[in-house]
Each structure stands twice: as C-alpha cells, then as structure tokens.
Amino acid sequence: MNVTELPLVEIVSLRIPYLCGQEFIEFFNFVELLNKEMIKTDIIIIGAGPVGLFTIFEAGLLKLKCHLIDSLPIPGGQCAEIYPKKPIYDIPGFPSVLAGELVDNLMIQAEPFKPGFTLGDAAVSIDKQEDDSFIVTTKSGVEHAAPVVMIAGGLGVFQPRKPPISNINDFEDKGVEYIIKDPEFYRGKKCVIAGGGDSALDWSIFLAEKKIAKEVVLVHRSSSFRGHLDSVQRVIDLADQKQIRLITEAEVVGLNGESKLESLTVRHQKEGDFEESTDHFIPLFGLKPSLGPIANWGLEIEKNAIKVDTTDYSTNIPGIYAIGDVNIYTNKLKLILCGFHEGTLAVQSAFARIHPDKKNILKYTTVNGVQGF
Q1: Residue with the larger pLDDT of the pair 83 and 107
Q2: CB neighbourhood size of 346 (10 A)
Q3: What is the number of other CB atoms lying within 10 angstroms of the CB of residue 183?
Q4: Which phi and psi (to 5°) does residue 292 adopt?
Q5: What pLDDT is stored for residue 372 in this prediction?
Q6: If you average pLDDT over residues 246-257, what whole number do you get?
Q7: How many CA atoms lie within 13 A of 225 on its CB side?
Q8: Which among 50, 105, 56, 98 has a CA at the least distance from the CA of 75?
Q9: How far apart are CA 285 and CA 287, in angstroms?
Q10: How many other C-beta atoms lie within 10 A of the C-beta of residue 145?
Q11: What is the pTM of this model?
C-alpha cells in the first residue's frame, strides 16, 4: 500500500489509542486514493515528522494547504516509528512528553487545515515546470504538484537494518517484510517477528491482541528487551496466555523456500539450530537514515545535509526550502524546537512566493483564533 488507505487507521491508532474506527477516519480526513491523476496543493512537504506536521499548522494560518509525503507508513517520523514511548524534555510548555504523544498532539493541531498524506512511499524525483512550480513523484509513481516544496526529511530516507542473512534479498516481498504497512496483510497467517525494541514488541502485541495473525512468534537474541517496560510485560503476559510464542537467546540465520518463504532456520544459543515454518518473517531492527534521492536533486549538499539561507531556510533552488534536521547552516542545532522555528519562517517566505501581490499581515492566534479550512 503506497498511498494511505483505510487499513492505515489501525496502524496509526496504535500510536493514538483514544481515536479509533470511523471516528478516526473522519477526524483526519487524509485519505488520497491512487485513482487521482495528480495531487495538487500549495505546499508539498517531504517528511511527515514533527517539523513537517507543525508546518501544516503554520501554513494553515496563512490559508496555505499542505500535502505530506513520507516513506514511513505512519506520520511522525522517528518519533512514531522508532521511539514513540521515549520522553522528550525540551519542547516548550511540556516538562516531559512522550515522542508518540507529541506526534498525536501535532496531528490534532494540524487537523483543522485538512492536510493530505502519501505514506509508505518515498519521494524519488522533483521536476521544475515552466511556470516555476514543481512536480514531485514518488516511488510508486504518484505525482504531486505545487508552487513550493519544503523538505522536512529529518535525517533523510529511512532504510531498514537488515539481518545478516545471505539470501534475504531473494525473499523480499515473498514473505520477508521490514515494515508493517497494512496489518490486514497478515490476517490468518503465521508471522515470525525478530527484534527486541519497541517496534518489534508493539507489533507482536498488536497482531496477537487483535487476533489478526494466526500465530505470532517473537524471536530475540537476548533474554532481555530494549523496549518500554509496559510493552515488555505485555509480551510476557501474552506469552503466558499462549497468544505469543516467545523465543529468546536465539536469532534467525537462514531462510528456506522455493518460490516464496516457507520456513526459517533459527539458531538458539543453547539448543542449536532448528527449523520454524512460517508465512512471514518480519525483522524489525530499526531504520537507518540517508539522504537517498534528495542528494540527486541539484541541491547544494554539505556534510550529508542541505545548505540553506537562514533568512527563510530556502535552498539554492528558488521555491524549495529545507527545514529541520535535513538542513545545515552555521551554528545549526538538530532539535525539534529549532525545526519548528525554521518551518514557521519558511512558510512566511512561501506565502510571498505563492501570492506575490498580497501583503501578509501577522495575525496572532490569541486574537484571531484558528480558522480551519
């Protein structure tokens, strides 16, 4: 699934437990279907992490509509995918906030401005048009058109950390997946998940508790886990209830099958090797960032980041801005709150580019409130 569809509701509701079902769908209203020839908006934001999400709000105050593209299957970037339950201490007004809760709040804040999302699909090319607007195309071929592009890609495109199994590439999309995009894909199937962090724990719990997978097996090379203590205890409880089969002090070392994955070779530290039948193997060892296709877009790159003018965080290509961890300038600090500031200034400049004949008068939300679309 490359563009957000209804099964994504279950994925995101894992991070936002108080919103579910039809209420959740109506609340976000961000489903874009593949039958659209081209998605048109005012600002294309590449990257749906916290900085990209807050930029929706700042753009909305200026009546500019945004559409976000992200290679990850859920909004929130690293905060949602890698460390949703880790506390952040340097967000103004929040002495402590869990990363996942910050994403939840940013989504609620953005909701009045009806953003669009293309998730689980990386932006691979950007083409400037004769009228100085841009077309951004994703890996699946979805085209997005806008006069302004803001790159808020954090540390770049996330690639999965693959286990060192010699033939793993042979089974990709044939039983091996590195990211769970649509839980329903695993309905009635046996799933072996490998990993010991929050993502491995959360998905094991989700597939088991929702009774989606026929059988859930969690394999981890250690007897202890790196994830949140609540999640660790829940996995142990589900294992005691025979809803999850837990194999610790072991790792998957081989994949077997003809046209598709049929079984795994598991190496236990004490019991040696054994074969485990499965329909799917999902190694969740985290993601590693790289600039990816962005590096080939003609932007000025320094130290694997995009150089910007700090007046408005514009790049060397007029109409393209870079905000958040993806950019670089003198005294740059890679902090979420700095990205919020950068996005705010970039949006002001974007307004002038989109509406050159209009004068933008700063209006305080304390006076005018928030007027959505």
Answers
A1: 107
A2: 26
A3: 18
A4: 60, -140
A5: 87
A6: 97
A7: 25
A8: 50
A9: 7
A10: 16
A11: 0.66
Question: Hey, what amino acid is at 236?
Answer: I
Q: What pLDDT was estimated at residue 7?
A: 30
Within a 10 A sphere around the Cβ of 196, how many other Cβ atoms?
22
Pairing of strands 263-268, 250-256: antiparallel
Q: What phi and psi, each to the nearest 5 degrees, are found at residue 68?
A: -105, 140
Phi, psi values for residue 40, rounded to 5°: -115, 140
29 pLDDT exceeds 60?
no
Q: Are 291 and 156 in contact (CB under 8 A)?
A: yes
Q: Report the run of H or E that residue 350 belongs to, with start and end.
A: helix 336-354
Structure token pair of residue 192: 């072996």
So what's the pLDDT on residue 157? 65
Q: Please report where in the chains the tokens 């719990």 appear, as a residue.
A: 205
> Which sign does the torsion angle of CA 116, 118, 120, 122 carry?
negative
Calpha distance 57→163 (Å, rounded): 39
pLDDT (tens digit, 9 = 90+) per residue, 100-158?
Answer: 899 999 999 999 999 999 988 889 999 999 999 999 999 889 999 999 999 998 776 66
Sign of the alpha-carbon dihedral angle for 77, 82, 84, 89 = negative
Q: Could you give the 3-state DSSP secondary structure of residue 142?
A: coil
Q: How far is it, in rounded angstroms, from Cα 257 to Cα 292?
A: 32
Among 115, 147, 174, residue whose Cα is nearest residue 354: 147
| Non-local CB neighbours of 140 within 8 Å, separated by 6+ positions | 2, 3, 34, 121
Looking up tokens 């902090």, which residue turns up?
335
- At residue 235, what is the residue type? V
Count of beta carbons in the 10 Å neighbourhood of residue 360: 12
Over range 209-230, report the average pLDDT.
94
Max CA-CA distance within the chain? 74
Spatial CB neighbours of 233, under 8 Å, sequence gap ≥ 6: none
Average pLDDT, stretch 208-219?
Answer: 96
Report whether pLDDT(24) > 60.
Answer: no
Coil vs helix vs strand at 335: coil
Residue 326 contacts residue 151 (beta carbons within 8 Å): yes
